[in-house]
Amino acid sequence: MSPSDQDLPLELPPKSPSELLSTAPTENAVTNAELQQQIVLARQAYEQMTQAALADLEQRRQNLKVSIEQLERKRDRIQAEIAQSFAGSSQEIAMRIQGFKDYLVGSLQDLVVIAEEIEFSEPMPLPEPPKPIVIEPVATIPSAQFREPAYQSNARRIRDLLNQYQTAPDYYGPPWQVRRTLEQVHVDKTREWFLEQGGRGTLKSTGNSRLQNVLIGTTAISVLRSLYGDYLRVLILANTPERLGDWRRGLQDCLGLERSDFGPNGGVILFEEAEPMALKAERIMADRDMPFIILDDSEGLVSLALLQYPIWLAFAPEVAQYNTDYRY
Q1: d(C-alpha 162, C-alpha 191), whole Å
Q2: Which residues of 21-33 are buried (b: 16+ CB within 10 A; e: fewer)?
Q3: pTM reported for the whole predicted model
Q4: Is residue 204 part of a domain?
């Protein structure tokens, strides 16, 4: 054997399939042993809990018994005072006796209530044998890109949905689908936000009515819901409860949403402050969902923390109210 051969590490032959399968019973035995150990620990914990409850009840009974003995001695002393007292103090003594009687009856009733409150649970059922764990592939959501020509499939889908909402509105359609007639201005502004601004930009408020902004926002929500499904989480920021109420009523009326669709765990979350909204959007992204941020035109100050997320729509106020300040 040459020196170079002596320096090489020895390689063991690979195990055959039969040898690999022979290790399976050992793993099952270990699993059954762990299961038996868990059962024994559960029974011991149950017995300890029962003993502790009985000891606590016994201690309360002893304490109450001592209190009753003290009250009985006090009763005997009062009776002795009655025998030695004159007629003018009989009423006071009678009141003291009645108070003792009431206290004694109340103590006995407390003891009965305590005894009835102690419930002995039934023996814990044996746990079922562990089931094999099936690892499912993690679902992925589409990318938040709508510009043409790089993302023509999304752009074509958006155009088709907007055309359907305008030409063939379904007033009794499923929730999250627009149930109102859209005018050309609503379709144009929504198309501009999707296809020209890429789902991240500002639209000037339409007219003097905030309901026009709500209608444009609900149209964008309906399109995004068709693209992302349950992954979409809508976050709306307005600086007054009245404006948030307008958005809530508008979403219920235009999209057919219910009370359960609103709230921290629902599809729509309403905010009056930008900081908690940014924290919620960060948690939604961590859960692999898609936040859609809508800023009402009442927000003169825009938080830069909200502009880092993939999809956001801000309604610009009138020129006289416009403010270019930013919050960091």
Answers
A1: 8
A2: eeeeeeeeeeeee
A3: 0.54
A4: yes
